[in-house]
Amino acid sequence: MPMFRRIQVSLVAATAVIAGLATPALAQSGCELKIGSMGPMSGGGAQWGLAMDGAARMAAAEVNAEGGLKVGDRKCHVTVVAYDSKYTADGAAAGSNALAAEGIHFIIGPVGAPEATGIKPILGRNQQIAWNGSYAKDAVTTRYPLMFHLGPGPGGWADSVIKEALKHWKIQSVALIAPNDQGGTDIVTVDEVAYKDNGVKTTSEYYQRGTTNFAPIITRVLATNPDAVDTASSPPGDAGVIVKQLRLAGFKGPIGRNGGPGTEEILRVSGGMDVLKDFYWYAGPPDTPEARVIDADYKKLLGKDQTFGASLWGDLPGARMTLKAISVAGTIDDVQKVAEVLRHLPVDDPNLGKGVWSGQKQFGIAQELMYPFGVGIIKDGKEVGVTRVEPKL
Amino acid sequence: MHQFLEAAIIGVGLGAQYALLALGFTLIFGILGVVNFAHGGFYMLGGYVAYTCVAGLGLAYPLAVVVAMLATAALGWLFELLLIEPLIDDHLATLMLSLGLYLIISTVVLAIFGPISMEFAFPVTGSFHAGSVYLPRENLIVLAVCLVAIACLWLVLFRTDLGRALRALADDRAVGMAQGLRPRLLFPLAFALATGLAGLTGALVTPILSLAPGVGEPVLATSFLTVILGGLGSLGGAALAAFIVGLVEAYTSVYFGGSIGALVLFVMVLLLLVFRPTGLLGRDVRGA
Lengths: 393, 288
Hints:
The complex is a heterodimer. Chain A is built from 14 helices and 17 strands. By secondary structure, chain A is of the alpha/beta class.
């Protein structure tokens, strides 16, 4: 080998050795953990998607305020990348791929049943853990073990909501209104069973997502002369229009929401308490002083008020537990190891209190977080309050 | 029986709203030969301008509606003059430009107002009831304004020199120009007229339904469906089709449910395209 060539090879080798030695030090000082947030961040269900994003950002801000997330001997700065999956299966699948392209293995979201259906099959391929907040009948399954569920779903609370409503109103029949996709039909099916178990007759009416004027559907619904109408999992924006048009049509009975939270937006769109009048709903985590600390901390950490209500409270434990599992597992790359740690973490949130890993009975896999939840009642245009219900397996 | 009457009332109300939107959409295609994908964006913008006037500036709602109509007309005029006009004969370019404008409008609205629905209520509430049949007062007012606007548009197009000039350009631009008509002056006016109608509809309808980013998308779909049914470029066809669409939507939804209602409309358009591709009152060839 000529002299010049030997010198060249030696220089390259020396550079490689120096680079190899320097890499851990660089990684240690510049560790960045990107996590994803996903859900509908525009349109009728935006409040839910933005709550999911807010939860991810708050959990990240909490650990960053402590100097970063401890992973092995490193402290990692956590950043959040948001993806608007638009409440669709293809949106969530595309979101999973887009986040994977950025090296993201942990997703707080998606929100809806169609999104959960779209993302589940590709989580394994993309090596990602996701937390869906959907009310799908198969929100988690043994087939897709990297999917976790921010519970409870309607199977966990519909019975309690209906029982509470029956204490305030005489309801012998109910008409349920929901979108005609999986985000509507899955929930209505569960709600129907819960109503029937409580002796209430049901009729169901589905609409095409994107419907803006519900007047014809309301005419059809009112022809069945129901005692109550339940907006089920209709997005809050749609539910607000439904409430407004029901009242304009002269419907005076109670209106229920055995679906996701969103009462603030329903109030805003429908025209306020005087229009809403009599209303019962699944309120998510109960409004307690401890839960309200989340709002104060959110403002302190992120510099603005949280406007997502109890949705953020319900999503936050999933984000916190994911970061905790990463820290305990000591890796940001070995997703299987993080998932295994996550499954065995105790369910005890600093703000929401003790909960349980549920889901074994309904889904065959205990990957559903369940905390105490509330059932809200508005009667004669006045908020009666939110009744606390303890989680049960 | 009350369901039948109720469906008719709802259908006519929907038809009038669809007519205002479809007339604007078809006006732009008929005169300029441009498929305006930003039409739903102007509807949404009309709603947000009216909301800002009422909630932010404290204007009375009727004045806010007028401001919304003028603002969307002004934006439409500028858009046509500055961006569409230089590329007026390139159909693909104008289509992409209008699609781009819709995305810009949506993003700006999202950035300024956020993704959630606004608290924007119609100033008149309540319903007239006759037995089981009801008629919301707000719908009655919107219907009346829509019908007046349609009548005004008809007067402008068929009883004024401006209307004659616009229709002449739509029939045959080359001959119209040879007669001294100036497309560079008239096309932006036609565009402004159409986008002003979309803005007016948005300002009228969003308070009785909801106002959020994305409300323009179903509007564009309905407008497109209506003008295809009526015949692209045909003003009479668009008005007729709008009321047919409104009534079909109302009756099918009332009697067969919301899912079937949406399906029937698309099947109807599909069948029409097979058996009468020019639409109900469309022509074979556009002159412009």
